[in-house]
Amino acid sequence: MSESVKLQPSVLIIFGITGDLAKRKVLPALYNLCKERLLPEGTNIIGISRRHVPKEEILDKVNLCVLETDQVCDPEVIDRLRTWLTMFKLDPLDDDDYVQLKSHLNDLDAKHGFELDRLFYLSIPPQVYGPIIERIGRHGLNREGNGAVSRLLIEKPFGYDLKSAEQLIEETEKVFKEEQIFRIDHYLAKETAQNILKFRRHNPVFSSQWDCRHIRRIHVIAKEKIGIENRVGFYERVGALRDLIQSHLMQLLALTAMDIPKNINDTEVHSSKHAFMESLIPPSAMAGINRQVVRGQYDTYRSEVGNIHSNTETFVSLVLKSHDPNWRDTLFQLTTGKSLDEKITMIQVFFGSQDPNILTFRIQPNEGINLNLLIEQPGFVHNLKEVNMEFRYNDHFDIDNHEAYERVLVDAIRGDKLLFASKSEVIASWKVLQPILDAWQNNNNDLQLYTTGSSGPSTDKL
Ligand code: BG6
Q1: Is the pLDDT of residue 3 over 60?
Q2: Backbone phi, then psi, for 362, in 5-degree steps?
Q3: Which of 146, 195, 197, 224 has its CA 20 to 30 A from that of 46?
């Protein structure tokens, strides 16, 4: 990433700096960007929290998180972060606090002698987005002009269902224009997900076969070994469909099946992804949602969340079809689950019918691409045997370990929207899934319990 990145000093205003996401993803990403000198001197980070939190408490957290993954945390990098970071106490509903924040931001501009780009990063529960965004607008913190821009960076889930997503979009649009809004989907920023479009375009052996006449099924899988990890309140409300299917898996599917635009830039890629999502046929309650969806819950979930009646799904697998004539007979399957036997994210493309060739994009871990082939086994018996052609990034590249969140931050700071979700994609994805949410609200009979550490409920019927 480093060769092509030249960033201007800017100010990153992080709401929720004491939260879990900031601790696990955002702060370590900032540490790495600082270490690799990808963020320029003069970068400002304002950590917003409801209560007074000393700067050292945040830096200690950075230190601990980095030690967990890297074993070494460079004190010189922490010193540099110390000079960039200011903590700011703000009650999200108190207008006076926004007035003070505004004056603090204006002082920073004055100190630098020019207006800094502002990036408001909401690393907080989505329910609080509305009031904060409204106040940012009310007090003019999102000023534009003199070449400086203000941007809004928000985390999924973008809404709770179709209606609330539309409402959230409407509320944000009152304050920020679409080009200023960066909706994070960190799966899009994973190195190997970025490869999908280029791979499809530049390998004619596959691109000439990329349609329903040759591809029977595309299966996007994101299995996790971890459970819900103390995120009880969040997960009970959200569940697997909203948490991973609506965002990450739909996005990966769209990258795999959309028409490849003439130019791989944000406008054309967004429009093509959107067109594909719009072409997906929402499951029909009439035909029976259960025919298209399997949902499950791991066996210790209810005791973990302290709710013996919880029907929140921790596993979902569903199949969809598309109206697009190019994909008329292809099945699109999306599967995700927590507390399963392995951590793996991959996209499998099944070519042919009976004995398919499966092209697999391994998104994580062991990033790479596999193709299974049938060959005749040497010897006197004419048996067929399945073998694997395997490409691993690590064997060919010194794959720099930029975590997806580093990419997210750099792209948001430089205003590159390619790897973020557009509002039309968000809406199109909710439209496809809304009938499932509606059906689940009225009926819980199909929830299957599965053993922690197993491969989850059977999906053979799909
Ligand atoms: C997040 C989900 O978006 O992605 C989590 O909210 C999930 O539930 C996480 O664990 C998985 O991300 P990754 O990068 O570890 O695969």
Answers
A1: no
A2: -90, 110
A3: 146
